[in-house]
Amino acid sequence: MARPRGTDGSLLSSLPWTLGALGLSIAPHVPYLPIWITLAFFGCAAWRYLIERRRRPLPSAWFRAGLALVCFLGVLGTYSSISGVGPGSALLAVMASLKLLETRKRRDQFVLLFISIFLVMSSLLREQFLWSLPYMLGAITVIMTAWLRMSASPSESAKRSFATGGRLLLYAAPLALAMWVFFPRIATPFWAVPIDSSRATSGLSDTMSPGDISSLSMSNEVAFRVSFDGRIPEPRERYWRGLVLTTFNGRSWTGRDPEISATAREQIRVAGDPVSYQVTLEPTRQQWVFALDIPRSWSLAQTFMGPQQQLARSTPIDQRVAYEAVSYPEYRVESDMRQVYRNWYSSLPANSNRRTAALALEMHAAALSDEAFINAVLEMFNKEEFYYTLEPPPLGSNPVDRFLFDTRQGFCEHYASAFSVMMRSVGIPSRIVLGYHGGEINPLGGHLIVRQSDAHAWTEVWLEGLGWRRVDPTAAVAPERIDYGASDAALEGLGEAWGLSAPSEFLHKLTMSIDVLNAKWNDWILGYGPDKQQGFMEWLGMDDPNWRKMMLTLIAVVVGLVMLISVLLMLRYRPPPKDEASVLYMRFIRKTGLEPVVGETAIEFEQRALRADTLPADAVTSITEAYLDSRYGPYRAPAFERLKVAVGSIV
Amino acid sequence: MSSIQWPFRNAQGIAGSLKSGVSERVRRWARKRQGADPSTTRLRPGRVYILPTGVGLVFSIMAFAMLLGSMNYNNNLSFVLTFILVGIGFVSMHQCQRNLVGLELSFSGAEPVFARQSLRFGIAVTNHSRNARHGIRLYCEGAVSEVQDLQPGESRIFVLSVPTSSRGWVTLDRFGIRTLFPFELFRAWAWLHMDVTGLVYPQPATHPPEPPPTMVAHGHRQHDARGEEDFAGLRKYHEGDSPRHVAWKAFARSGQMLSKQFAGADTSSQWFDFEEIAEADLEQRLSILTRWIVDADRTLEDYGLRVPGHEYEPAHGEAHRRACLEALALFDEATG
Known about the structure:
The structure holds 2 protein chains of 2 kinds.
Chain A: H1 15-26, H2 35-54, H3 61-79, H4 85-100, H5 109-126, H6 132-151, H7 158-182, E1 207-208, E2 222-228, E3 239-245, E4 247-248, E5 253-254, H8 258-261, E6 266-271, E7 275-281, E8 288-289, E9 291-292, E10 295-298, E11 303-305, E12 311-313, E13 321-327, E14 330-335, H9 339-345, H10 354-366, H11 370-383, E15 387-388, H12 399-407, E16 409-410, H13 412-425, E17 430-437, E18 440-441, E19 448-451, E20 455-463, E21 467-471, H14 473-477, H15 479-484, H16 486-498, H17 505-526, H18 530-540, H19 547-572, H20 580-592, H21 602-612, H22 617-632, H23 636-650
Parallel strand pairs in A: 15-16
Antiparallel strand pairs in A: 1-5, 2-7, 2-19, 3-9, 3-17, 4-5, 6-14, 7-13, 8-12, 10-13, 11-12, 17-20, 18-19, 20-21
Helix pairs in contact in A: 1-2, 1-5, 1-6, 2-4, 3-4, 4-5, 5-6, 6-7, 7-19, 10-11, 10-13, 11-13, 12-13, 20-22, 20-23, 21-22, 22-23
Chain B: H1 11-34, E1 40-42, E2 49-52, H2 54-73, H3 76-98, E3 103-110, E4 113-114, E5 118-127, E6 133-140, E7 143-144, E8 148-150, E9 155-163, E10 168-171, E11 175-179, E12 186-192, E13 197-201, E14 215-217, E15 231-236, H4 248-254, E16 258-262, E17 267-273, H5 282-298, E18 302-307, E19 310-315, H6 318-329
Parallel strand pairs in B: 4-13, 17-18
Antiparallel strand pairs in B: 1-3, 2-12, 3-5, 5-9, 6-7, 6-8, 6-11, 10-13, 11-12, 14-17, 15-16, 18-19
């Protein structure tokens, strides 16, 4: 067996750059990678660098094969599959680590740089923050510098390579921009996109079990942003309708019983001024599409209105979408409320929450009408000792009974559920609507930010002659929740808990500025899809944009830019400027009528010119002397003046 | 010159022969198109050719895969990354070609060598521009030069070391200049057809017969004030040389007997005659003559050469040596 050869240190000029490129491209994956892969990578990188520094041999082939086997089994064991962004990037990181240990020649680093490009790509598939773009540009600059270092001569400094890499990227930037703008976007993917389940998104659940979860998520994550075309609705009008729950089993409300409700015909009549707006919805992995009560038109494709006026898309929303919608805050929903539907909308499971039912029947008997009964229940919530809290105690079985008679602490879900159960107990059809309420206006961007913490549940009851009416029991308990929104109410609570006042003005402004940037970023960069592109093409003056026209424009623009770059490069490689002394001397040469000979010195030419005798001898000698002095003499400026005069005298 | 041969031995042979056949045809087309080049040639853009390398092909496949991925995920940031890479591809194509355009090449000579030594053609490349040129390499059939960078205004000699087998003129019909800068995605090259020639002397015989005897002509001695003669060099020891003149130090070092020669001392001369060598083979005879001349040149002995058609009077020195060896290198029996 051959003795292992030591490394020769020839990679020292490029290896640090390659390691840097790999490190930069793996860094965004670190929070998602199992810790052993991160450690393995950084371990291998440091080890490989030390091997090169100390000119040690690389680890043996048997060792590397064993390590490879262990690593691949490790990835398989961790992910149980190798497709998708998560396992894919883990595999790439492992491959980079292993390849490092067998990188002997400079050109072996090509593989490492290809791997780091793929790692950058997969980190972009994972998350697209505002800083992802500058980070990616930085990473690609380092990758390209490492690429140059790989084949650069040893005398070339790293600084120069970095400058060259940066310059070439700068040339590529306008090309990339043109292709990005004009490359036709398509709406539907070619094949199913494997969802990275490691990144859960918060959204609304399609079941509601008040009392099971004892605290509401106070996630500040943005659910959606809305920009209004004209008037911004009042806070109390901002009910963002999501899904409708119609079935109660004593503990949980669900909307998964569409059979009977789907057949009920409901007619919407609208009045007053419409509100038109644009929603940018963050991905939810669910079908629900949110709109202001009550939407009449919306621009999102494959989106339909359900029987209870809820909007849903036929495919889950797993990417950010933007849509326009028009809603009417004043509306009436008429319904064909035959007995079968009436029974269904007021059905309750037998033998549950009996005390609630008894209370409802008692109160209904005391009230003069259904409306009076509703007001009495709301008044009960308002006048008696009910509290609005985000951390209510758990409720156990018969949650409504326990809530109404024992704990009396809860948030919107508890009140909506209790109210709805009371309505159903006396035969008034009712249902629960889940969505968002309120939102915060960003004064800088003028748009409305609706966060996950703005999630809300309210009820709708059907009354003879009035149709489905919205009743929000939470408003009776915590009117400020409806007037100001959940975030402000919660922030105050938070401040009290920490013994602080409300967050400072400055912090709030900063948050708002970042939100504006994020909104623009989402809107223009991440949200540049088929519709946006169409609009932008029309704005550019293209009539009836289609992919063919865009592709032709792309080619034309790219060809134009490439020609421009070619000219730029030609200018970079143009000959250096002739100095004025040479220009004057050339004029003298022409005047002598002699052909200059390659390699001839000025002195030699002087001899030839004197022999040729086409110009006065003193002119020839004084010009030659002045020329040589102005190039090589100690006093060049006066010599140059003499040259000017002398050449001037013969011309 | 390779040509397509039939029957092919195997599939690889077919591919290989086709490839070399096609590239030979392309080269001939380029030669016809460009014509012969003057001794100093500046590369015009029209004669710098460019093709992607293997790395370039892998790079383009990767960019295409990334484009499909970006379209599938509808991910605008990965579109940005993909298009930056495509842009880099375009830019590096132009940068690669520009790295050669405008370079000036001229043949700077080749020292004659003996057969089976490598003939080192020197080609000067000058960068008449404001920008450095990176990773320049010259190549020809059977040889490649070192890779060098050229700073603005710099001129460097690139050496093509071509192995030789037999005596005579060796002409480099064609050589190339190429670069992979910046990212090795493209290879830009130019073919040059300059008058690039070098002379190959016959290979000196390894076991030559004894050279013909030396004839000594007595010179008139010139004594200086101290009565010593001017030391002029060493020559091979011949019987009859004074032991006083033997360079004993040199003998101790190399084991070869050499006599000190003094200016104005006796001069000896040898005649090397082609006809007098008892050897049938022409090349062998030339080899023997070459060996004799080389050996004689190391000493200070005058030597003359007689080959059919030429006669070189006994003399010494670099010019004489060159003339004699050149006569042997170019010796042609028919015209001889």
